């Protein structure tokens, strides 16, 4: 029996959009009209590295049992009884409603773990709005946008950590748990050739024709350090305008799915072409999903002016990928094998940084030094008073800053803190999350 995950929430909060996003195809009808989903729909998919049965339920509404809405609610309650995990979805854009609060209270009494999913949380403002959901008492809200695909990596991680009876090798931090590695890049950049070079065997079909790999292929392997790796060689991503055949659309979806499932992404570049908009888009998607990135600069043996090629790449990374400042670049030739032996040590080093947690005392000594060097600016003539910082999680490193009006912190000061954090704790090339939480202060107005 596959583990069962039920998606619950009020009508029109985006449950069916989330279901379709997680299943990877449009099974549930999506519309702005509340109550479109009346019957439970189900599909099998992989979430957090595990194959699961996913249920899309009708909306939860307060209604008499004999009405359609009442029967829809009864159907949703039946789904909870058979679920191993519930995803409770709210609309971050419209804020909490009495219905959300009532159903959260009901869910807290059920004998099933619940993850709180704040949908429609596009952008930083949406993420801030999602924080309101803490008052539901269901733990940390997971901000996502089912429509745009934002935040799915965080949801996969939360499912992986919460779903009961996870096999020992899959448990967080388990000694035998394989590192999940995705190999991504444009078609014909040499991804399959690189995988063959890492494995030391012709596992993947290769050739000069772009698009030979149509689906993602999972490969278990032990690297030279003795650690287990689960490699996924993905079909290459092309610009949307050029994805005309349905098969290529499926390949692109498989690539994105692999990125959400992985921990470290190896972005394969053709050194003769350099880093173009497609690769930048992939790197930004990896960063947005909180994945660590290592660049494999393939076909390096065919580059004539290597100094100029590296400078061009470094300039692009500095100008367009500041959020992954300092990421590792490994020049290599997958065809000849030169430099391939340096790739996995770089991956392991990046993975260690991605997993690293800073003790609270050390973090706050750094935080106080940053505040004394450059105090937060006034916003609308009022002072932002930051008090302390914590690091509740790694994977990726996440810093939460508390203080009066902390949520009003300007973007440039956020960048100042993130860059200072990277530099002080030597964390190049991994995404760093900065979240802010306001604290109640009865003298707040007097301080302004």
From TrEMBL:
GTP 1 binds at residues 9-16, 56-60, 119-122. GTP 2 binds at residues 185-192, 233-237, 298-301. GO terms for molecular function: hydrolase activity. Gene3D superfamilies: 3.30.300.20, P-loop containing nucleotide triphosphate hydrolases. Coiled coil: none annotated. The keyword Nuclease does not apply. The keyword tRNA-binding does not apply. InterPro entries: AAA+_ATPase (IPR003593), G_ENGA (IPR031166), GTP-bd (IPR006073), GTPase_Der (IPR016484), KH_dom-like (IPR032859), KH_dom-like_a/b (IPR015946), P-loop_NTPase (IPR027417), Small_GTP-bd (IPR005225). Residues 3-167, 179-355 form the EngA-type G domain. Keywords: GTP-binding, Hydrolase, Nucleotide-binding, Repeat, Ribosome biogenesis. It holds the Pfam family KH_dom-like. GTPase that plays an essential role in the late steps of ribosome biogenesis. Belongs to the TRAFAC class TrmE-Era-EngA-EngB-Septin-like GTPase superfamily. EngA (Der) GTPase family. Associates with the 50S ribosomal subunit. This is GTPase Der. It comes from Siccirubricoccus soli.
